Amino acid sequence: MVDIYFLTPYICNMLINELSKKTGISTHTIRFYEKSGLIEGKQDESVKSNNYFHYDDVTIEKLEFISDAKSVGFTIKEIGQIIDAWYNRKYTKKQKLEILDEKLISLEQKMREIKEMKKQILQFKDDVLNDRC
Amino acid sequence: MVDIYFLTPYICNMLINELSKKTGISTHTIRFYEKSGLIEGKQDESVKSNNYFHYDDVTIEKLEFISDAKSVGFTIKEIGQIIDAWYNRKYTKKQKLEILDEKLISLEQKMREIKEMKKQILQFKDDVLNDRC
DNA sequence: ATCAACCATAGACTATACTCTAATGTTGTG
DNA sequence: CACAACATTAGAGTATAGTCTATGGTTGAT
User: Measuring from the CA of residue A38 to each C1', which nucleotide is nearest?
Assistant: First the structure.
């Protein structure tokens, strides 16, 4: 009997419920992300009795990346571009690097915006403390 | 004749079209923000022939703040809380400082998420450059 | 006085990102 | 072998944040 784990690229194989528990993202939302093309489960061809999707550890990483990205204002579409530039074969090497560089620039911009906001909120605090508002 | 500008807190008085041009935000969106309670124009009581709203320079600052905040993932509701904590009288001093501190913590969190994303995208670039994807 | 360029309100419409329900099938433990 | 706890798809419903249209009034330059 051959150990299947030597034959698959999957370190770990889980169904959607386990993936949901490990990431804190609901199964509904995970399915929504899958329909949106951000992640991808695999059906086991050798099992004919069901059509369950299996997910690996990379999917957990992707979902954590998606959570971070959404939290700082990236859209599903933008997140999809990043993931595709990393994982997908539909782009050339050059295109991938262009997309990733573009997103790095967005990140720098967001970082500046956060610093500006922080400065302003500290000023607001100062205004409140000194009864200027 | 008394100069009205000595009697008002307004440095500059403009109508919605000028405000739109100065901020790059459409008049529709500005009105939407006004309905949402983020900004507030003032009608000139002495003018009976129209009901035009007038905006001051602080409104420009607020709109720029809103743009930054939206860009890094804050919702209208959260932005409203910040602006109210700064400008509004409906909170006590203590409540205002609590809200502002809470938002500073959100900003720190977002900054961490951005740094994490940056690290990952740099890794993605490395993967692409070394044909690991 | 005319007319383009503005102003206002109300409400319909759209896109995004979920979130939930219904209907139905599968698995595994007592 | 029952049945709780899982799985699937399709599609409806919701919240958020605009975006647009219609209708009607005002302003200011010619």
Answer: C17
Distance CA A124, CA B46 (A): 33
Percent of chain A exceeding pLDDT 70 equals: 91
B75 touches strand D (CB under 7 A): yes
Distance CA B61, CA B69 (A): 12
Residue A7, H or E segment: none
pLDDT per residue over A16-50, tens digit each?
999 999 999 999 999 999 999 999 999 998 888 99
Give me the torsion for CA of A92, A93, A98, A103, rounded to 10°. 100
Of A72, A85, A128, the CB nearest to B110: A72
Nucleotide nearest to A16 (CA to C1'): D7
Q: Measured between beta carbons, which residues in chain B are less than 8 angstroms from residue A110?
A: 71-72, 110, 114
**What is the distance between the alpha carbons of residues A20 and A71, in angstroms, rounded to a whole number?**
18
Are the C-beta atoms of residues A12 and A56 closer than 8 Å to each other? yes
Q: What angle do CA A14, A40, A108 make, to 5 degrees?
A: 110
Rounded mean pLDDT, B10-30: 92
